[in-house]
Amino acid sequence: AVSLDPPLAQVTLIRGNRASRYLEKSPFAINIMSTDQLATCLHFAGKPMATSPRWRDDGELPVLQGNAATLECVPWRTYDG
């Protein structure tokens, strides 16, 4: 879910997920994948690629190279679902 006013993006994680401890209080990026990044999507879904995905190193947030868009985020609220 995304809102333009105010600008919000919802990230839903399973309780105890490893990513949740990193996202709770630190800025993070949402990488929106392009249509030609299926192998990269599968890599993060548990089917590793022969070579690791490439990351941009021009900022402080982890952003994949070649993605369609990036949402740079700062945590706002955490809700128990």
Average of pLDDT: 87
Rg, Å, rounded? 14 Å
The topology string of helices and strands comes to EEHEHEEE
Strand content: 15-25%
Can you characterise this structure?
This protein is of the alpha+beta class and 81 residues long. Helix content is 16%, strand content 25%. It has two helices and six strands, in the order ββαβαβββ. Strands 1-2 form a two-stranded antiparallel ribbon. The protein has a two-stranded antiparallel sheet with strand order 3-6. β4 and β5 form a beta hairpin. It is globular, with a radius of gyration of 14 Å. The model has no long low-confidence stretch (mean pLDDT 87).
Give a short synopsis of this structure:
The chain has 81 residues and is of the alpha+beta class. The chain has helices at residues 18-23, 38-44; strands at residues 2-4, 7-9, 28-32, 55-56, 63-64, 69-73. A hairpin with a 2-residue loop joins strand 1 (2-4) and strand 2 (7-9).
